[in-house]
Structures are given as structure tokens and as C-alpha cells.
Amino acid sequence: MVTDRLADKNLLVVSHGYKHFVKSQVDVLAEYFNSVTVCVRYNWFADVASRLPIDGGEGFGKDAKISQAGVPDNVHVVETPLLYLPVDIQREHLLGQQHVRKVRKKLDDSPVSFDLIHCHMTWTSGYVGARLKEELDIPYLLTVHANREWFGKQLQSDNERLKRAWTDADRLIRVNRRDRSKLEPYNDDVVHIPNGYDTDIFERIPTADARDRLGIDDDTPLVFALGTLKPRKGFQHLMRAMTRVHETEPDARLVIGGQGGMRDELVSLAAELGIDDRTDLLGYVESETLNDWMNAADLFVLPSYSESFGVVQLEAMACGTPVVATKNGGSEEVIASDDYGLLVEGPESHDELADAVVEALHRDWDGDAIESYAKEMTWENVCEEIAELYASVLDEYERTSVTAVQ
User: pLDDT band at residue 52, thresholds of 50, 70 and 90?
Assistant: First the structure.
């Protein structure tokens, strides 16, 4: 069994965060291992900037990158501070070298002997993994999380260190299927494993109970969206689409959860469009309240330009809530059938987006079927697949090592 195969092994994770999807994955995988060490990169300049009248560091500091809540006993989080300016022209090529040095120095003090490396994000964590694979003589896997736009830039990059992160991996994991062929010129072992959702946070509950706690009337058509408030997420276009939705559903309410630099712009846009009385920007939403919003909503909308997968859609579906999303690189694979949601061409297709929202609000959805589909991609199920991949890589490595000795 895979649990027996990994039970005495020590896993090293190198990532750009121990929060949200990486933390959820690591915490489940920890059940398979003797120990897991997570080296988390963050920008200590961002922590300094947060105390000064300087913009540009939001989301990159330690608190934004690391969560210490509910860390399993066998997981050790190693803070790995780097220094770079938000517009640092050297970051593209030189930051990887700094990251390697910092992680290596941290590991010099570690009493653990590692058996396997798993990195999240190509640049710079993947480059660190490629270097450590060579130095520690252990296998290394990389999950490529980049959204469609970011991934396209990486493919066009002239950074050979970035490409080394792909070529040296014993397995490349891509969270969507469509991009496997783009990675195969760099590595023969590219696999698809999706992201999952956290069952400790998202569960289906009666809609009436959720609405009662949130103070939402039972008959209010409720459209919910969630994400970082930045242009790529397309909330500005969802607001414009809602003006048309209101032509047939005048009482429909748009609620957007999340923080980000576009908040003031979105507040102004809602006022300009005359929908500020039916639009709420919640800011950061605590987990328990977020589950209520997912269950209270008639519909979840992801209007973004670019996603690698879009796990937030699964979180909504886990609550039996249908999804309307744009074709953004990730949603096409999550909304695998119109039994679970509707796809529109893009965020700027305001009329099409509005039509999809109205259609979804009027359709009689099968919440049980939506929930059942989402349950196929819980972190428990996804991590079982990852653990089996680990065991396969370790077996190959050990066979190769024996052959080399002979």
C-alpha cells in the first residue's frame, strides 16, 4: 500500500506560500509521511513596506504567505525570507539564485534527511528543487500552478534557469489537461492532477440556514463571486453585466468577496452604474462565513480572464451551487458539463455573461448532482493520487540507483 511505502519517508516542500491550496494539500499529504518540511518563500521588503507609505508589497509578506493555523504535528514550516523590490528588473533571472542560497542555508540546520522534493510554482521554487535534486541526490517533482497568461509568459521566457525547473523534474504536474502538451517538449513525464477543495471548510448545508445567518431574504436572487480584487479576475465586467441582469431580475444582488487594489475602483464603478444599492464588496471573508455565502448563493460566478484551474468553482459546487464562468483556461475543465454550470466566451462579453446569469438563476439545478461531482476532487482524493505518484517516483529512483551501483 502507498501508505506503507511512504510512512518512513521525509518530504521536503518548497513553495511560495503555506496557505490556501498549498497548505490544504500539504496537510493531507502529511498523513502519508514521517515528516514534511515546508520552506516558504516570502518578501521581507513587503513586511517593511506595510509599515511605510509604500505601495506594491501587498500579498507578498510573511502573514500573507504563511498560515500557522492547524499545522499537523509532523509538518515543520521554515520561513525563507527573500529581498526584492516589486519592480525589481533583476527578479526574473537572479531571484532564483537568492532563493537557492536561502533554502540551502535553512536546510543546513535541519536534522532531517529528505527522501523526496515537491515544489509548487516554477519560478523560483521549481529552480530550487532542480538544484537540490542534484545536490541531495533525491527525486524532485514540480506542480506548475501558473494561470494561462502567466504560463504563456513562462513558455516565451529566455530564462534557462526557469526551463531547468521543467527539464530536471522527475514528474511535472499540471493542474489542467490542456497544457500537458506544451510542457512535453521539456519533459517526458508530464501528468495531470487537478487541485482539490478543503472539506473542512466547504460543505453543503440548508440554503435557508445560511441565508438566515447572513441576513439575506429567501426570495432575493443572490449572485456570489470571490477572488483577489484585480483586473484579471474580471469583476468590473461582471458589474457591467449585472446592469442587464437587473432588466429581468431587478432585485438580484451581487456579492463579491476578497481583498485587493481594485476595491475603490469597483466601489466607484458600482455607483457609476447605479447598482451600488444591490452590490456588496465584503473584503476578506472568514472560512465559516464563506461557507455560508457559498450555500446561500443561487449562483457562483467566476468572470476571470485567466486561470490555471479555478478551485473556487469546486468550493461552490461542493455546496451544491451551480457556476457561471468564462473560458479562461481552467474553468473549461472544471465545468465539464452544463449539468454543473455554464461557460461564456470571455469577461468582456457582457451580454453573453448577463444572459448566462439570468438563465442560471431561472434553471432548476440538481444540487445533489453538483455536490457529488465536486466530491470527486476533494483534497483527500487528489492527495491519494499524488501519494501514488510519489511512490512510483521513489520506486523508479531506487531501481535506477541499484542499476547504477551494479
Answer: very low
